[in-house]
């Protein structure tokens, strides 16, 4: 199993290195066409990985598909593993959409220049992968040792869904974020951006100029007061800290959701990672169209409600529906998401027609 995990992590690292080190080595603003192309590529990678999942579990490569899944007690073959992987992938991808709205708000609050947003998202997602790995490892261990914790996860997901449906979920001031407050206490923060740098030293070339195209370098009081060589955080670092901390909050929802589908650590981790790899390009696609998807939050709440109920009644559901109930769950998740998107587009078009009249 070690080589299996090492191979997947190496594959992810290779993709990330190519992304930042080759294709986005120079900071630039992603066009809608470029963002759509990258989104299509990452989705293709995520879906194509299901082919490896099928053959890996069907042929029990490197120990895959040997132990029973703690969720349903089934030893996964190729077909059942693919069903669980795709369901987990789609659930995580859909829940990531809500994260996109928060990221857009954070970028607006910190006035992050568009050309540097990809770099912030890159490091944010790299940190998210590490944190998700730790949370998934702990969660899988808890499910294996204490099966009753699934019911707690189920109730939590249902309560979260009801909160999303019926309560206003206004976002807090990022200045109150614990990481931001800690950073401000420990480090001096520059008043303006210094290119794509998260940290600069006072007295260096990077700390004396803005490096933003078309923006003249202005005096920075923090830099001017700091002793030469002092480490200074830039606002870009604060934006990264907020994005990392908000991902932890969203993981509290998405990790229990995936455990409603499977507790196989490899399926849980790979479906999560493949989904969040496309979050950067997804942001650039959706950021400019957020107002068009007015029913997206309702769809996401219904997805959480669906997987939460499934977690509570899994045994009864399996008896009632049969062994393919995971396939039906996948179909229901897709139906809810597509319905939300279609309803949003119809409402937006009707609203546009009314305004013209």
Descriptive tags:
mainly alpha; two-stranded antiparallel ribbon; 2 domains; 2% strand; 2 strands; 357 residues
How do the strands and helices of this protein lay out in sequence?
Blueprint: H1 2-23, H2 32-58, H3 78-109, H4 117-145, H5 149-166, H6 178-186, E1 199-201, H7 221-225, E2 231-233, H8 235-259, H9 265-277, H10 279-286, H11 296-312, H12 314-321, H13 325-356
Antiparallel strand pairs: 1-2
Helix pairs in contact: 2-3, 2-9, 2-10, 3-8, 3-9, 3-10, 3-11, 3-13, 4-8, 4-9, 5-8, 5-11, 8-11, 11-13
Would you give an account of this structure?
The structure is a single chain. The chain is mostly helical. The chain folds into two domains: 28-167 and 247-356, no CATH class; 190-233, no CATH class. The chain is 69% helix and 2% strand. The chain contains 13 helices and two strands, in the order H-H-H-H-H-H-E-H-E-H-H-H-H-H-H. Helix 2 (32-58) runs antiparallel to helix 9, helix 2 (32-58) packs antiparallel against helix 10 and helix 5 (149-166) crosses helix 8 (235-259). It is globular, with a radius of gyration of 22 Å.
Mean pLDDT: 83
Q: Helical residue percent? A: 55-70%
Name the poorly predicted regions. Answer: 208-218
Beta-strand residue fraction:
under 5%
Indicate the multimeric state.
single chain
Integer-rounded radius of gyration: 22 Å
Major sheet: order of its strands?
Answer: 1-2
Give the terminus-to-terminus CA distance. 64 Å
Separate helix tally: 13
- Give the overall silhouette: globular
Structural class: mainly alpha
- Domain count: 2
Order of helix and strand elements from N to C terminus = HHHHHHEHEHHHHHH
**Biggest sheet overview:** 2 strands, antiparallel
| E-strand count | 2
């Amino acid at each position: 199993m070690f080589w299996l995990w090492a191979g997947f992590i190496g594959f992810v690292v290779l993709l990330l290195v190519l992304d930042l080190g080759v294709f986005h080595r120079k900071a630039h603003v992603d066009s809608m066409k470029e963002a759509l192309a990258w989104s299509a590529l990452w989705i293709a990678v995520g879906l194509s990985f299901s082919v490896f999942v099928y053959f890996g579990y069907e042929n029990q490569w490197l120990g895959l598909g040997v132990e029973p899944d703690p969720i349903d007690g089934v030893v996964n073959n190729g077909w059942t593993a693919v069903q669980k992987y795709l369901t987990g992938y789609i659930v995580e991808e859909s829940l990531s959409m809500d994260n996109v709205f928060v990221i857009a708000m954070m970028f607006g609050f910190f006035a992050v220049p568009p050309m540097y947003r990809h770099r912030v998202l890159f490091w944010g997602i790299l940190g998210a992968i590490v944190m998700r790995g730790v949370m998934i490892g702990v969660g899988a261990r808890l499910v294996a040792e204490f099966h009753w914790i699934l019911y707690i996860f189920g109730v939590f997901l249902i309560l979260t869904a009801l909160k999303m449906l019926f309560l206003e979920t206004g976002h807090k001031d990022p200045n109150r974020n614990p990481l931001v407050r800690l950073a401000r206490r420990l480090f001096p923060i520059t008043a303006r951006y210094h290119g794509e740098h998260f940290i600069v030293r006072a007295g260096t070339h990077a700390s004396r100029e803005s490096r933003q195209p078309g923006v003249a370098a202005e005096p920075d009081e923090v830099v001017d007061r700091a002793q030469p060589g002092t480490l200074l955080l830039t606002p870009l670092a604060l934006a990264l800290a907020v994005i990392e901390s908000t991902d932890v909050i969203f993981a509290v929802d998405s990790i229990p959701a995936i455990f409603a589908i499977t507790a196989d650590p490899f399926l849980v981790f790979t479906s999560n990672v493949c989904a969040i790899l496309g979050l950067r390009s997804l942001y650039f696609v959706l950021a400019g169209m957020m107002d068009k998807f007015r029913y997206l939050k309702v769809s996401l709440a219904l997805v959480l409600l669906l997987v939460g109920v499934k977690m509570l009644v899994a045994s009864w559901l399996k008896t009632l529906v049969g062994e393919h109930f995971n396939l039906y769950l996948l179909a229901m998740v897709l139906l809810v998401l597509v319905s939300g998107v279609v309803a949003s587009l119809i409402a937006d078009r009707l609203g546009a027609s009314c305004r013209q009249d």
